[in-house]
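Sequence, please.
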C-alpha cells in the first residue's frame, strides 16, 4: 500500500525535482562548480483542473528532447502575438490591437527584482554629489544632516550585470557566464529604504533617471507646508517643455511624522512609476517607453535631515532578444523564458537539426533532434573505411547513428513553443539546499 500511495503521489499530485543548470538563476540555483542544486516541489495536480497561467514557473517535457524535463517561466500564452523589445515583454491578440507591455503580478515581480548592492558591504555604493558636507555614508546607511543629494554607483548607467541578485556567498563559487554579452543599460529600477525624518526636514526626494528623463518622487517632511502633498514629477531633460514637467499629486495633504520610521519604496517598472509607503502604493503614473534606458539613482533631502537605513537598489530582468524577438503563439501552446536571460536555453534558442536519410529501395525519412553546437549532432568516425558517421539524439531522446553520405542536411527548424500536453506541473517551493557551512538556507515559495 505504501508503494502504491508513493507512486500515485509522485505520478499525479506532487514530485520533487533537482535543478541542474543555471537557466533560472537566481530564482532557482543550479551549478555543478558550486555543487549547489535547488530541490523544488512540483504541484502536478492543479494543471489537471486548469490551464497553466502566465508567469508561473513550470516543469515540462522538452519539446526537442522528450526524455528531458525543463523548468522555465511561462511568458507567452497562445493564441497571441508576443515580442521582446528594449528588455521588456509585450503581447497583443492580433494585428488589429495595440501592443501592451506585460506586467507581472506583485508577488512575481517581488521575486524577480535583482539586488544591486551587497547586504553587508564593506564600503558604500553611494556618493554625495551636491552639498551634504555633514552627511555620513556607511554601507547601506546614510545619515543626512542638512540639505544635499547622493548618487548610487557613479558614474555611468546601471547595467545588467550577470551576478546581480545572486546569494553573495555563492558568487565566488559559481560558474561565470559561459557566453558573456556586452552589458546593457537597464531602466526598470526600484529603490527601497527605511526612512526617519528629523523635525526640521521639509522634503525627501528620490530620483530615477532614464535616458533624458528624470522621474522625481517627492515626500514632504514634518516641516513642510500644511498643504504639501506626495508627488511624482516627470522632467524631460534637454527638451523644451511648454507646460513644464508632468506632475501627479496625492489627493489629500501629506507630511511625514518626525522621528517616526516608515518604509519607503519608489520604482520605474515597465513604464509605470510607483511610490509606496509602508507597503501601500500611494501614487502610480504611466510614462512613455524609452529606447535607450541608460539610468541612474539619486536621493535628496531638504531641511534638518533624515536617516536612510537598509538602502537597496534593484533592477528588473532585462530580457535579451537573442535569435527571433517576435512570435505568433498558436492556441494551446506556451512560450518559455528563463529568469537568467543571459544564459538560458529557452524558447528564444530552440531549433531542430534535421536530416533526410536516403536508403536504397526505400523512401527518404526525416530525423530531427535538438540543435546544440558541439553537442548535437556530432560527426564521428573520420578516417574509418566506411567514412564519417553522424550521431544525432532525436526528439525522443534516442541516439541515432547514420553514415554522413546517406544523409541530406535540411535547413534547421525553429521550434519555440511547448504544447499544453507536455507541461507536467507548477513549481511551488524550494526545500533544499541547506548548507550551514555557507550559511545558505534556500527555503522559499516559488513565485
Amino acid at each position: 500500500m505504501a508503494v502504491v500511495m508513493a507512486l500515485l503521489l509522485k505520478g499525479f499530485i506532487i514530485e520533487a525535482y533537482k535543478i541542474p543548470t543555471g537557466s533560472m538563476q537566481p530564482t532557482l540555483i543550479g551549478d555543478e562548480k558550486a555543487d549547489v542544486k535547488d530541490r523544488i516541489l512540483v504541484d502536478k495536480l492543479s494543471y489537471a483542473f486548469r490551464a497553466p497561467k502566465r508567469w508561473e514557473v513550470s516543469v515540462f517535457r522538452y519539446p526537442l528532447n522528450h526524455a528531458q524535463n525543463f523548468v522555465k517561466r511561462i511568458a507567452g500564452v497562445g493564441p497571441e502575438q508576443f515580442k521582446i523589445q528594449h528588455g521588456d515583454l509585450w503581447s497583443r491578440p492580433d494585428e488589429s490591437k495595440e501592443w501592451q507591455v506585460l506586467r507581472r503580478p506583485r508577488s512575481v515581480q517581488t521575486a524577480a527584482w535583482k539586488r544591486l548592492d551587497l547586504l553587508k558591504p564593506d564600503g558604500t555604493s553611494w556618493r554625495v554629489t551636491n552639498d551634504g558636507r555633514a552627511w555620513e555614508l556607511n554601507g547601506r546607511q546614510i545619515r543626512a544632516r542638512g540639505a544635499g543629494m547622493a548618487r548610487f554607483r557613479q558614474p555611468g548607467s546601471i547595467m545588467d550585470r550577470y551576478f546581480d541578485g545572486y546569494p553573495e556567498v555563492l558568487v565566488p563559487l559559481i560558474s561565470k557566464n559561459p557566453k558573456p554579452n556586452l552589458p546593457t543599460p537597464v531602466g526598470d529600477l526600484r529603490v527601497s529604504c527605511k526612512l526617519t525624518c528629523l523635525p526640521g526636514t521639509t522634503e525627501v526626494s528620490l530620483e530615477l533617471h532614464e535616458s533624458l528623463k528624470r522621474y522625481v518622487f517627492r515626500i514632504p517632511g514634518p516641516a513642510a507646508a500644511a498643504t504639501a502633498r506626495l508627488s511624482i514629477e516627470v522632467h524631460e531633460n534637454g527638451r523644451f517643455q511648454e507646460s513644464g514637467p508632468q506632475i501627479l499629486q496625492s489627493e489629500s495633504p501629506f507630511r511625514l511624522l518626525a522621528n517616526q520610521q516608515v518604509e519607503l519604496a519608489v520604482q520605474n517598472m515597465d513604464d509605470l512609476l510607483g511610490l509606496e509607503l509602508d507597503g501601500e502604493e500611494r501614487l502610480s503614473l504611466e510614462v512613455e517607453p524609452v529606447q535607450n534606458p541608460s539610468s541612474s539613482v539619486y536621493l535628496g533631502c531638504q531641511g534638518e535631515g533624515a536617516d536612510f537605513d537598509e538602502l537597496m537598489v534593484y533592477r528588473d530582468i532585462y530580457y535579451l532578444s537573442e535569435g527571433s524577438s517576435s512570435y505568433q503563439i498558436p492556441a494551446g501552446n506556451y512560450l518559455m523564458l528563463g529568469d537568467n536571460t543571459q544564459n538560458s536555453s529557452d524558447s528564444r534558442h530552440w531549433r531542430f537539426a534535421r536530416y533526410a536519410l536516403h536508403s536504397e529501395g526505400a523512401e527518404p525519412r526525416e530525423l530531427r533532434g535538438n540543435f546544440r553546437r558541439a553537442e548535437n549532432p556530432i560527426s564521428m568516425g573520420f578516417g574509418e573505411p566506411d567514412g564519417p558517421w553522424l550521431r544525432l539524439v532525436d526528439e525522443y531522446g534516442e541516439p541515432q547513428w547514420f553514415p554522413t553520405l546517406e544523409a541530406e542536411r535540411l535547413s534547421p527548424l525553429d521550434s519555440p513553443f511547448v504544447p499544453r500536453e507536455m507541461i507536467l506541473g507548477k513549481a511551488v517551493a524550494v526545500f533544499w539546499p541547506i548548507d550551514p557551512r555557507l550559511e545558505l538556507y534556500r527555503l522559499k515559495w516559488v513565485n
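The CA atoms of residues 141 and 309 lie 5 Å apart.
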